[in-house]
Amino acid sequence: MTAGTGTGRLDPGSVLVVEDSPEDTEAIERALRQTHPDLRTEFVARGDGLVEALLAREELPGLILLDLNMPGVGGHALLAAIRARPELRDVTVVVFTSSTSPHEVEASYAAGADSYIYKPVNFRLFRTVLKGAVDYWRQQSGPGTGL
Amino acid sequence: MSGVNEPTAPGDRQWPARLHGLWQASQDVADVTEMSRHVYTLILTEPGVLAVTGTRWRHGELRYLRRATAGEPLTTTAGPPRATAAFPPRPAPGPDSRPVVHLHDLGAGHGALAPEGDVLRDAGARWALEARFGLGDGDGDWAAICVGLAGRPEPDADLVPRLVQLSEVLVASHRRVTQSREHERRQTEDAFLAEASLQMDSSLDVQETLGRVARLAVPAVAEGCVVHLFQRSGRLTPVASAHVAAVAQPWLDGLARDDRWLAALLGRAVDQGEDVRLSGAGLDGGPFGPGAAGPGTAVRAVTVNALRARGKAIGTLTFTYQRDLEDVATPRMLRDLALRAALAIDTTTAYEQRRRHVELLQFQLLPRALPTWPGVALHSAYEVADDSLDVGGDFYDAVVDRDGRLALVIGDVCGRGAEAAAMTGLARNTLRTLLEDGTSPANALERLNATLLDQSANRFVTALVALLTPTGGAEYAVEVVTAGHPRPLVRRAGGQVEEIPGAGVFLGVVPDIGVEPARLTMSPGDTLVMFTDGLTEARSAEGTMFEELLPAAVAECAERPDPAAELIARASKFRTTGNDDTAVLVARLEGRP
């Protein structure tokens, strides 16, 4: 992930969570608050119009955490729509979903996901997994950046 | 340097309250850094204190240095600010010994109290009091807090016992945070093991199961995971892998397949029965660590555990870690996971092997090909019950007799397993031999009954024989004899479906089976459908049997390219309970009248 080649400037200290389940949204918020209190988090429950909204922004999130199973524009379609826009190519997209099906993994990678992360039921494990993914991409983006 | 232990401490009146507040804070903090902030803030309020430092040492190596002055908040420097050898060694306190306070003259040269001396001198200090204490994590793990003072403290200064008290708070806080982290980590690892077990139980497909476990482990356990299994050739081959980054997946797959260093490491885990755990210089020469190229540069540690089932190595479980070394999975968890994975693989492999044998034996009991007979298209299909690991007793056959007539047979031996398989072979071959010789269907079934009774078999058999005889025109005379078997259906060319009547009891139970042949005429376009009870007894979630839907299904399927397979597929889709083997044999008279 390199900064600043799309339309908007990349804000590596910010994470956009696309998640329709209120329970999962609460769990993600709680987990990230505990593990990365410095991270700015933003939550949206639907993917409809999201790509257009991102393109209109001055600052893009460094990372998008994407649920696959959503009403309206589903996760796969949203992922494809994000990856279809060169302006958003520097945004890291992490699919965060409750399936470990190899078919789902392959489909997400083929559509351009940077990571495919299983969403466990147990909160401690949930927090560990989320921390692992955020830490990994923070490490990739280099020291000194928020992500 | 001189020891100044346990001096008298007159103290001000506020100190006990402030110390109490600190003890309370020590119960709530999430990490030692946060606790240090509380301690340093408090100590900087002591008269004469210009600066405070904290150092953490492990086996003579400085882990970090913290510093704070009245005007500058707490900052932490990780690792030694210069070569460790530059610090004169200080005797490490025992892991559980009480804090000891030492007085240092900072004017005695730059080496005095390195590395804290420089920090304290920069803040204007001339003297330092150092409280040194073990952290209870084993020998060689200790810490020190130092305060910088402008003037030499009196031997009975309040500061000396207060440093001891603050050190005790830090030790207790460290212990609580460490225990809490260990507890948290164990709970997380146990949750992971439980999730992994669930994944392993969810499929009987080895490849898919391992793929799921590898995916679950990343990044819960590590950044990369590879599972290798021994193939029949004796070669370790990667069967599943996952990396937290999609872009690193091909790199990991390539290493798992081709890297010799990694292959040697896996061999070590297997041959020496050793849980391999490498980091730092242990990674030298391999595809991981600072000296490696590509994505491997960021890998800080690698673990390999052999997968063993019933005393035999069946593969390996490898993890690559890019996280802090202290976050590398514990040996306990890795061993537990390897054990669970090995057992799951072993069970699944054994199941697959047994199922293959059953299928092989099952199909040996069925005709390899149905005969071709002018004017009649024959179709057959067989489905083995999903969860069965035993050979079932359904059978069918088609025989052209010495007079050129076509005899169709379908039957079912009660029960499953080796005995049922033997009886199935006996029943099918007896009927085939008799029918080939031109024995009538009723006679053939009576002879089979006598044979079964002679053998004192404790299983019964149901069977049906349909004999098709050309009448010279386009029509066929059909004789149907059933012995305890579901009655067949005829779907007429016009679409109506009729059940063919019949009488006769199970074979192998009583000498007189009371068969009564049914006779009918079939014309081109008519279809005779014979089946076993696995088809009729398929039951939906609402309790409806497929038997009720069968006439309509036969009406629809009779003209399809493969009516037998179509009927079985429909029953399978319909079925939620009543899982039994199913055989279907269909004879369709070709051409239109």
Could you explain the architecture of this structure?
The complex is a heterodimer of chains A (147) and B (593). Chain A contains five helices and five strands. Chain A is 38% helix and 22% strand. In chain A, α1 packs across α5. Chain A has a five-stranded parallel sheet with strand order 2-1-3-4-5, with helices on both faces. With 147 residues, chain A is an alpha/beta fold. The longest helix of chain A has 18 residues, at 123-140. Chain A has a single domain, classed as Rossmann fold. The radius of gyration of chain A is 14 Å and the shape is globular. Chain B contains 13 helices and 22 strands. Chain B starts with a strand and ends with a strand. Mean pLDDT of chain B is 88; it is low at 1-10. Chain B has helices at residues 14-26, 32-43, 116-122, 159-201, 206-220, 249-258, 260-271, 331-364, 418-436, 441-454, 533-536, 546-557, 563-574; strands spanning 2-3, 49-58, 61-69, 75-78, 100-105, 127-134, 141-149, 224-230, 236-243, 276-279, 301-309, 312-321, 376-383, 394-400, 406-413, 461-470, 476-483, 489-491, 497-499, 518-522, 527-531, 582-589. The radius of gyration of chain B is 41 Å and the shape is rod-shaped. By secondary structure, chain B is α+β, with helices and mostly antiparallel strands. The longest helix of chain B has 43 residues, at 159-201. Chain B folds into three domains: 2-180, GAF domain (Beta-Lactamase); 202-357, Beta-Lactamase, CATH 3.30.450; 368-589, 4-Layer Sandwich (Phosphatase 2c, domain 1). In chain B, 35% of the residues lie in helices and 25% in strands. The A-B interface holds A 100-102, 105, 109, 113-118, 120-122, 124-125, 128-129, 132-133, 135-136, 139-140 and B 184, 187-188, 191-192, 194-195, 199, 208, 211-212, 215-216, 218-220, 223, 242, 244-247, 249, 298, 322-323.
